[in-house]
């Protein structure tokens, strides 16, 4: 999900910047405890292979794909969702097309409708989150509720634009961004945004859960001393290719910090 609509494409990024290529996981590789298995997929090189395997998508996914009038947006959707099914199938030890996906109950108060976190049917103890932006798809897997977000930088944003966007955030986050040199504010805003969206996806509300309500803080390298995160949740910044920012949020027992383990997925 993006906060500004269309973003400029991010190009010229070396392949190795997308992380070490890892073999597909096995059921024994399911993450546990504070571990978050994080995968990055570079969409354009994978698009052709994904199109050939699009038959693994379920009826709801195929119907949604047909709604995209823009070919590039449709390609990104199909490729990222094929990648999700490939990874889920590998972790579960079944064919990707056999993975049944459902929606959990909404995390918003007084709402019991099934539009919360996506989940594997049958109560499998494997939680996941998918995010995509421009040429990148980000996947997170854990044994507890988890959220992930990746966004592309937009070099067209000046200090005035960033200040306006930051007003959507928690007041303490706004103040932390404004306290930085203007040259660092765009980076700080984006780092805070991906943490916020990862958390809101993790609790099952998405953006309606309140950008201003919850304090997640800035990325670790920019956060002021004493910055806090929501109780019972651990947030971690994820190494991302140049031009992107990414983060994950994991529900924990309060004593453990989320530990992302990063790898690159290849479909072709």
Topology:
Elements: E1 35-42, H1 43-52, H2 59-67, H3 71-92, E2 101-103, E3 118-120, E4 127-133, E5 136-142, E6 146-152, H4 159-166, H5 171-178, H6 182-202, E7 233-238, E8 244-251, E9 259-265
Parallel strand pairs: 1-9
Antiparallel strand pairs: 1-5, 2-3, 4-5, 6-8, 7-8
Helix pairs in contact: 1-3, 2-3, 4-6
Written description of the protein model:
The chain is α+β, with helices and mostly antiparallel strands and 268 residues long. The chain has six helices and nine strands. The protein has a four-stranded mixed beta sheet. β7 and β8 form a beta hairpin. It is globular and about 50 Å long. Residues 1-12 have low confidence and may be disordered. Keywords: Transferase.
CATH-level-4 superfamily name: 4'-phosphopantetheinyl transferase domain
Class in CATH?
A: Alpha Beta
In the sheet with the most strands, the strands line up as 4-5-1-9
Task: Specify the helix fraction band.
Answer: 25-40%
Write out key terms for the chains shown:
Ribosomal Protein L22, Chain A; 9 strands; 268 residues; single chain; alpha+beta; 4-PPantetheinyl_Trfase_dom; disordered N terminus; four-stranded mixed beta sheet; three-stranded antiparallel beta sheet
Summary of the model, kept short:
The chain is of the alpha+beta class and 268 residues long. Helix content is 29%, strand content 21%.
């Amino acid at each position: 999900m993006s906060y500004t609509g269309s973003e400029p494409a991010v190009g010229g990024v070396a392949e190795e910047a997308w992380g070490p290529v890892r073999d597909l996981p096995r059921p024994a590789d399911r993450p546990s405890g504070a571990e978050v298995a994080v995968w990055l997929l570079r969409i354009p090189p994978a698009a052709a292979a994904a199109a050939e395997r699009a038959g693994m998508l379920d009826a709801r996914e195929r119907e949604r794909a047909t709604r995209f009038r823009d070919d590039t947006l449709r390609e990104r959707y199909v490729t990222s969702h094929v990648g999700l099914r490939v990874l889920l199938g590998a972790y579960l030890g079944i064919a990707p097309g056999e993975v049944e996906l459902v929606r959990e109950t909404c995390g918003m108060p007084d709402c019991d409708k099934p539009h919360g976190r996506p989940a594997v049917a049958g109560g499998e103890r494997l939680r996941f989150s998918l995010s995509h932006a421009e040429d990148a798809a980000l996947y997170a897997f854990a044994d507890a509720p988890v959220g992930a977000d990746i966004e592309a930088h937009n070099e067209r944003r000046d200090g005035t634009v960033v200040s306006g966007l930051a007003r959507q955030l928690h007041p303490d986050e706004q103040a932390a961004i404004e306290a930085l040199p203007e040259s660092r504010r765009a980076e700080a805003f984006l780092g805070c945004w991906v943490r916020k969206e990862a958390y809101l996806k993790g609790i099952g509300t998405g953006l309606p859960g309140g950008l201003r309500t919850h304090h997640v803080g800035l990325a670790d390298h920019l956060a002021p001393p004493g910055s806090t995160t929501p109780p019972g949740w651990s947030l971690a910044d994820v190494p991302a290719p140049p031009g992107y920012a990414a983060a994950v949020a994991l529900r924990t027992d309060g004593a453990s910090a989320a530990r992302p383990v990063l790898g690159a997925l290849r479909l072709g």
